[in-house]
Design brief:
Order of helices and strands: EEHHEHEHEHEHHEHEH
Strand content: 5-15%
Number of helices: 9
Structural class: alpha/beta
Distance between the termini: 36 Å
Largest sheet: 4 strands, parallel
Strand order of the largest sheet: 2-1-3-4
CATH topology of the largest domain: Rossmann fold
Radius of gyration: 19 Å
Shape: globular
Length: 248
């Protein structure tokens, strides 16, 4: 049997474009490699700070993200994603620059989630910064313009530490911020049938949000796991020997 080559790295189909940050990445966080049940490739985009990407629309960084995406493909990635939902703003440009599928943002799930829900129900978004999540971010991710949006901006820990790129995180306080924001969004919009977490750093709290709200919670973890399943479909044993031949 002969096999083909052409890659520098094999067995890691998903390439992740990372912001340059120093805040703690606990298990569940996209930037913690232990969060994934499959190997991934990481590439840090230098100078792409959380503040620059979230609050200043990643201004001046498009070429750096495209170069990093191309590097990941050259190393062996079969698909590209990112570790910030706000990078939906570069979805079209990165997708046009590489020959593999690109899924920049968890927000790209919103339209699909809406299609799963009963009439009169819809998905809501929980974001780290509602004040800077613009119509362009939503449009690039295919999110309906009237989608309800909740945020952790009013909390005492999560938004400050992540966007401020602080070196320590009070996990219990961050969990409280996320759960409280989700409950506030649910109270304001009782028609919600599901939640989509914009921020990839919210994944460690998804189970707590689900328990508190009773709503299905979609995140970058659910999105990239689905994405990976298309890049590396499971191979099943050939069942033919186990079944008797059909007789006419």
């Amino acid at each position: 049997m002969k096999v083909g080559g052409g890659k520098a790295v094999y067995g890691a189909a998903v390439g992740i474009l990372m912001l340059e940050a120093r805040f703690p990445r606990i298990p569940g966080d996209m930037g913690n490699a232990l969060s994934w049940p499959f190997p991934v490739l990481y590439r840090v985009v230098r100078n792409a700070s959380p503040d620059l990407v979230v609050r200043r629309r990643a201004e001046g960084m498009l070429d750096a993200f495209i170069d990093a995406a191309r590097d990941l493909v050259a190393e062996g990635a079969d698909g590209i994603t990112t570790n910030c939902g706000f990078l939906s703003i570069f979805q079209d440009e990165i997708a046009a620059a590489v020959p593999v599928p690109v899924a920049t943002s968890s927000l790209m799930q919103v339209a699909t989630v809406n299609s799963l829900l009963a009439p009169g129900r819809r998905a809501g978004i929980l974001t780290i910064s509602a004040s800077t999540l613009t119509p362009l971010h939503l449009e690039r991710a295919g999110v309906p313009a009237d989608t309800p949006i909740g945020t952790t901006e009013g909390g005492r820990e999560f938004t400050r530490v992540i966007i401020g790129n602080e070196p320590e995180l009070d996990v219990a306080a961050a969990r409280e911020d996320n759960v409280s924001a989700a409950l506030a969004l649910q109270r304001a919009h009782p028609e919600l049938g599901a939640l989509v977490l914009e921020c990839t750093n919210m994944v460690p709290y998804a189970a707590d949000i689900r328990a508190a709200t009773g709503l299905p919670v979609f995140s970058i973890a659910s999105f990239v796991t689905w994405f990976h399943s298309a890049l590396v479909p499971p191979r099943f044993a050939d069942p033919t020997p186990s079944f008797p031949a059909l007789r006419g």
